[in-house]
Amino acid sequence: MRPIRPLLTAVGLASVLALTAACGQSDDRASDEPSASSPTAGTGVGVGGASPSPSTSATTAPSPSATAGGRPSGSSGGTSTRPRDTSRGSVDEEKWREGGWQDWSPETWPREPDEFVNPEIDDLWAPDRMVTARPPDRIVGPGGEAVGEDGSDPEPRAVAARPERTPYQRYAATSGKVFFDAPEGTMVCSATVVKDPANPGRSNLVWTAGHCVHAGAEGGWYRNVVFVPAYNSRGLSRRELASAAPSDVAPFGSYWADGVATSDQWIRTGDASDGTGASYDYAVVRVKPGAGGASLEETVGAALDVDFAAAQPHTVKSLVVRGYPAARPYDGALMHSCTGRPGRFAFEADNPVMWRMGCSMTGGSSGGGWFVDRDGTPVLVSNTSIGPADPVWLAGPRLGKEAERILTTLSASSTPATADPAVPASPQE
Asked: Most-buried pick from 23, 350, 372, 422 (CB within 10 A)?
């Protein structure tokens, strides 16, 4: 089993994980409420904030206040850039901008729910750096706990991914890329602009995969997290992108994250090498408003609803998966999509049954949205998490109450945008 996870070019291929049968799996697991042996839901929602520094791609936002224990909370405070006074979840922003973020010592790497930090670094995400964030395949070798397909629908046939129509800012404005830094290097995932219940019409929330923001059981929060909606809107080649104008690479600008939430299950049990925790592999990123205070939703002209009570996957007649595949035969430059009929995938015993659909997209498509049509409007029901060694299908978590709690957490802590509501919007999807 190959997680569709962000990895470095130097990582090679290994043998394929053998799939073995497991008993006792049924559609009763098609809810993301934990079983008796699962981590307690809601106790570790990963939400935090970051103090800002000036940026040309987004306006500054209030930095989080500190709790009595010295950790940053999800609430907003002043705009001080003073170092925080704890070893975890603390930042000397001057040192951070000078490269201090490259310290990944296990003793100081923030990993707890309230320890996410993400100070802005001017001009860090230049076009040539974005282009190098290319995740190739990594095939997971045999070992670990057995996984099974008991309760899964038959393996779907392969569906070839098709390039999306350009310009993306007209036809796929809500989709984009999440860039971030990890101990292994510069990485990338896909993501979707979603609606904020607390700020209708003015959302700054983005949906992606949990493994695109947090390393899981063996690590902490990733750094320098930025979202670029409609990345490479004109569909330029990878070579052209390295020296392209900023307006071609990021037509709506780049948005730095100032809050992130993922599931407690991903933080405690997720493993980016073997797919463990895939049923809870989802996350929400809150970004800072753009220039002039306009929200992300106002800027791109749209945001999508999230359905936390979607029908069983095998009853859905048609679904669209979208993302930026970067492993061979793709190179990460172009947005692609697959359309087909999804089914059920029972990946881990005692964990919720996932969505699965035939699709040839590879690494880099992680976090990309899965959409069903509701009266002509796309609604997000999942995100890409894992796939097999041979890129025949993709699988994503079924979203339920735990996923809804995560969105609600960041929504409740969002600071309403102050932009003039009359800011012109780009064409919607």
From this structure: 372
Cα–Cα–Cα angle for 48, 54, 60, rounded to 5 degrees: 50
Helices (H) and strands (E) in the chain, counts: 8, 18
Q: What is the distance between the alpha carbons of residues 329 and 163, in angstroms, rounded to a whole number?
A: 13
How far apart are the C-alpha atoms of 63 and 53, rounded to whole Å? 10
Confidence class of residue 99 from pLDDT cuts 50, 70 and 90?
very high
For residue 292, what pLDDT band results from cuts at 50, 70 and 90?
confident
Question: 216 — alpha (psi -120 to 50), left (phi > 0) or beta?
Answer: left
Q: Are strands 2-3 and 386-387 parallel, antiparallel or unpaired?
A: antiparallel
Please provide the distance, in angstroms rounded to a whole number, between the alpha carbons at the two ends of the chain.
Answer: 34
pTM of the model: 0.79
d(CA 106, CA 59): 32
User: For residue 230, what pLDDT band results from cuts at 50, 70 and 90?
Assistant: very high
Q: Give yes or no for a contact between 50 and 64, defined as CB atoms under 8 angstroms apart.
A: yes
Quick one: the chain helix, strand, coil %, rounded to 5?
A: 15, 25, 60
Task: Return the closest-CA partner of residue 209 out of 369, 356, 7, 367.
Answer: 367
Measured CA angle at 254 (ends 249, 256), to 5 deg: 150
φ, ψ dihedrals at 117, nearest 5°: -135, 145
CA 250 to chain centre: 18
In the block, residue with structure tokens 């939400």:
47
d(CA 101, CA 111): 14
Question: Is residue 393 a contact partner of residue 156, using CB atoms and an 8 Å limit?
Answer: yes
- pLDDT confidence band for 3 (50 / 70 / 90): low
Q: What is the pLDDT of residue 247?
A: 92
What is the structure's pLDDT at 273?
80
Res 62: pLDDT: 27
> CA 281 → CA 31, 185, 193, 404, 425, distances in Å?
14, 21, 17, 13, 32
Half-sphere exposure at residue 309, Cβ-oriented, CA atoms within 13 angstroms: 0
Q: Which of 193, 265, 341 lies closest to 32 in space, CA to CA?
A: 265
